[in-house]
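We emphasize that the prediction below concerns an isolated chain of 227 residues; any contacts that depend on oligomerization or on bound cofactors are therefore not represented. The input was used exactly as deposited, without trimming of termini.
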Amino acid sequence: MSSFDKFAEEYDSWFTKNRNVLMSELLLVEEMLRGEGRVLSVGCGSGLFETLLRERGIVINDCVEPSEMGRIAEARGLNVRKGYAEELPVQEKYDTVLMNGVIHYLKDPLRALLEAKRVLRENGHLILCWVTGEGSYGLLYRLASILGWEKLEGVSPQFPYPLEFVKEAKWQTVDEVRSLLRNAGFEEIGIMQTLTRHPKYSNSEMERPTPGYDRGDYLCIKARNIL
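Result of the prediction step, given as a token string:
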């Protein structure tokens, strides 16, 4: 049983306490999803992002989620199939696959990307969003997994990400993600960033996404299925 099974409620609670972080990430995902057609969300968790995106005019109906969080997503009106990113219980084709904050928790990221490719139409898009390993959040999370949040008081956010989730994650760098995408047969066509302030201050106000990857701690890559 993963932390996402045992601490499902804590996940949404963290976003509630860090509302501006949530909205900054949401604006980035929204920007990348505009005009993307039929979307499959892989690893939708509680369906929080999908529900908020719906309120902003981006409708995602279909999701895949392995943990008990899927029940929360179903209660929010999403069509949730229980399964893993590495072996999607999906046969139909989609215009876009969204993997938002998922890559950190995959046992086999390359296999998961190949599965995303399988369910994408030709030239369809994968939108992959994650906390970059070389950013302030990624480095802080690595330190917290060793020391715990108590010893980082004063340099960490007021409401830090639950340690149970931090310890299960791997924080991939931009180079690592780009390499995985190339090996899976995707062509990068865009990258955007948000959360450019230090983690202690990133919840101070909502931030709009900007192109690039050299300042933000939360990134989204849009990649085309080319092979």
